[in-house]
Structures are given as C-alpha cells and as structure tokens.
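Entry:
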Amino acid sequence: MCSTPGRTVHAVIVKGVVDYADGSKNDDWHDYAAYASAAFARHVLEATYDRPVAFRKITAMRDGG
C-alpha cells in the first residue's frame, strides 16, 4: 500500500514462477508463466469488478495508465 496526502493506492503483485534457478534452468516456460500470470490477474479483476469496469482497468494497465 502506498499513501500520499488524500490518496491511498492498494496493489497486488502476481508473479509467474518458472524454474528453480538451479543447473536445470532454461527459458522454455517463461512465456507460459507470463500468460498464466496475466490470465490470473484478469480473472481476479473480472471477479472483483463487473466485466466493463475490468476491461477498462486492463486496458489502462496495458496502455501504461
């Protein structure tokens, strides 16, 4: 949570875990982890807000806003 005068922003971090960072480490699953994390974040937004509001929030995040 970040606070500024008159405004509080809450954040949730969604992270895709790909490997154990050991000798068997490779990049084969990075795209899958990214897509799975994005799908989960979208599901959480759609479960929290109605679909049009969730779509606006997702679009704003994608566009950097």
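The chain is about 50% helix and 10% strand.
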